[in-house]
Amino acid sequence: MHTIMLVEDDSALCSQIIEGLKKWGFNADSAVNFENIIDDFSKIKPQLVIMDINLPCYDGFYWCNRIREISKVPVIFLSSRDTNMDIIMAVNTGADDYIAKPFSMQILIAKIQAILRRTYDYTTADHDYIEHRALILNMGESSVIYGNSKSELTKNEMKILRLLMTNKGRIVSRESIMKLLWDDDQYVNDNTLTVNINRLRSRLSDLGLEDYIETKKGQGYIVI
To answer: 3-120: which CATH architecture?
Structure first.
């Protein structure tokens, strides 16, 4: 669940947006210290910032510049100011998008979702992704990415790799893998697991990863 920080001094609008974000499943919090937005930013640790331009003390352009000094977190400007110069200023200060007030909450949510996907896909420690030694396992797509190459995995290959990667540095027994895949390993031919492991190794080898999965004779498999 991503955390969104809202920088908006209109308290009624702020409450409305925060409520809308939470209904869509986001963690949402608002800035309270308009003299030092960076202080709130450091406390909230958001994955995205929604920023008004007209703010007390300093404007949104100033705070976007300050955020860019310490973070690449995406910023969306949400403002009643919609001249070309305002939009140019927003882009020049490092904003990722600009929405003029009045606005549609559905459009705001759609833009937030698009920016979050674009920013954090394959880079976060989200539950849908695991990364180890530059190999990224995308469990949502059942695929692996290494460098500029991508390979689709079968359901069993994905389960095996996920188990090994989440237990990196520890030996995982063949029995544990078989129980994960087939619930009751006594009805499965031992060679079936070997076939799945070999196919997974072949896919990783095609990506340029040799010996990613090591065999520990008489014990099981390990990813180091």
So the answer is: 3-Layer(aba) Sandwich (3.40)
